Amino acid sequence: MELAAILLAPAAVAACCLVVSRRTAAMLTVIGSAVVVFLALLAADRVLSEGSRAGLGGWLSCDPLGALVLLLVAFVGLMAALFSIGYLPRRHAAGGRVNGNYFSLYNLFLLSMLAVPILANIALVWIAVALTTLASAFLVAYEDTPEALEAAWKYVVLTTLGAVVALLGIVFLYWAMKLGGGGPFTWAGLRAAAPHLPPPVLWMGFLLVLVGFGTKAGLAPMHTWLPDAHSQAPAPICALLSGVETTTALYAVLRLFPVLETAGGVGARNWFLVFGLVSTGAAALLLVYVRDYKRMFAFSTVEHMGIVMVAIGLGDPAHFGAAYQILAHALAKSFCFFAAGAVVLVVGTQEIASVRGLIRVSPIAAAAVLLGGLTISGAPPFAVFMSEFAILKAGLGTAQYVAAGLLALFVVVAFCAMMQHVNHIVFGQAGPVQAVASLPATCVAALVLSAIPVLVLGVYLPSGLHRLLAAAAAALGGAP
């Protein structure tokens, strides 16, 4: 019941937002998002006690990995809705635009992301991933500048091409299922039929899905839409795009790993390692030369998607670290874009070179950027550090020294590059920037609320959340 309600809530709010005032639409969106968080917590609790949940006659299904992604989408969705209340009018006053359709599109975007981890049929999952582009493209172009329109167009073209490639991969997977004796075309059905699937057809399906959904997830070298879209979209939309939309696309790729491992003869681990290391290495180099702090956080997303891929490729001992990394990245990256949005509101520019000595102008925005930079770059004792440490430990423990060594090198380069930029923004001495506005109360509230898990989960992991991560790792193919 709760799975269907999770989809119904944003759909109902999206419809209501079309006929009410912008202020009422904003309040309804926050309330609806809070309801989704409650329902996602309820679903996750029942998944932990029952192993999985189903609804609508089997059309909906959720296991621990799906529950983890569902919780992250719901929480980030709530924080982004809260941040939007103060952010949009302030950007409108600075020359942007406020449109009553924002919150309707916002809820449709949230609905499409929520659908990915709870739809049972793989073809429907593809439709949900494709719909995330349709709903969010208008939000990327929301500020209606030439740069925003160009970024949205690039986003639509590249991710749609990726969706077409992924669709072809889905067709190959369905063909493999039929050749292997048939069965329900679900993740569980595909995994059960894996020993009977013909490896060449399965391999082709996996490769096409990897490239197609990898484009949406921001894996290098298919990531080129990501920094443009994230530099032009409103900050709360960036939090959703970077924090959880990329995760939902990667989720569809990760679901194939246990299928490939069970089937054998595909060499899935090597593909995950190669794509992961290429993404992590490319992002580390791009972070050195970045000039826009929103693009900086966008390139960090490319890095973190690569880290998850490497963790999966390292095998079972690293899968808990992969699940932990998914959690840590979603929470930290969404917070980073809230911090970036706060800086935009305070100083009115996204250029790193134009922002120096922020601590002397807006201590709240400066503290948020500093915390965001530290946590997302992997500084101890934050959750990203703990997840990356677990992944590297697993790599060394299984004697995969080359992969672990390269990953460690790229992570260190990315850390140094990002913290250099953050240091200049917060403590730079080239002359303090001039504040153009203060921060709205709802933006500060969103920063504070989203900072709590960022600060806590590196030093304390609640037992229920630890169990969920362990179960999600098992769903990825790791040992329970």
Low-confidence stretches: 94-98
Number of strands: 2
Integer count of domains: 1
How many helical stretches? 19
Essential attributes:
480 residues, mainly alpha, two-stranded antiparallel ribbon, 19 helices, 2 strands, globular
Structure, described:
By secondary structure, this protein is mainly alpha-helical. The chain is 76% helix and 1% strand. Strands 1-2 form a two-stranded antiparallel ribbon. The longest helix has 34 residues, at 146-179. Residues 94-98 have low confidence and may be disordered.
Write the layout of secondary structure elements.
Blueprint lengths: L1 H16 L4 H29 L2 E3 L4 E3 L1 H30 L7 H15 L6 H19 L5 H34 L7 H7 L5 H19 L7 H8 L2 H20 L1 H8 L4 H22 L3 H22 L4 H29 L15 H14 L6 H15 L3 H27 L13 H16 L6 H13 L5
Helix pairs in contact: 1-2, 1-4, 2-3, 2-4, 3-4, 3-10, 3-14, 3-18, 3-19, 4-5, 5-6, 5-10, 6-8, 6-9, 7-11, 8-10, 9-10, 9-13, 10-13, 10-14, 12-13, 12-17, 13-14, 13-16, 13-17, 14-15, 14-16, 14-18, 14-19, 15-17, 15-18, 16-17
